[in-house]
């Protein structure tokens, strides 16, 4: 009987670990290169937050994955992350690697997190223009 109880406890412990909730993030981004109709992989994006003295403090820096995405900025950990943020898309190296001339060496998008909701801030990109919007 003791072995059965022990096996049941081990099974329940393992099952509860496998059903644990995945980590969620409050901010994500995506880059679509509209000249190619494809995602823009391996582009560095820097996240900064505006401090009370109006200076910018770098919070994080990541590279887009093969699908042009970064899904894990600002961990949704129950803390208050409201404030004014800036995403800097470092586009010059991306276009240089593609052998293309471009007009914007980097693109800065400033926005405000006003609550604990998820924010998706993507850009559509070409060598001589870009567009952004709040996605989902």
UniProtKB/TrEMBL annotation:
It catalyses: 5-hydroxyisourate + H2O = 5-hydroxy-2-oxo-4-ureido-2,5-dihydro-1H-imidazole-5-carboxylate + H(+). Substrate binds at residues 30, 69, 133. Residues 1-20 form the signal peptide. It comes from the Bacteria. Its EC number is 3.5.2.17. Gene3D superfamilies: Transthyretin/hydroxyisourate hydrolase domain (2.60.40.180). Belongs to the transthyretin family. 5-hydroxyisourate hydrolase subfamily. Catalyzes the hydrolysis of 5-hydroxyisourate (HIU) to 2-oxo-4-hydroxy-4-carboxy-5-ureidoimidazoline (OHCU). NCBIfam families: hdxy_isourate. This is 5-hydroxyisourate hydrolase.
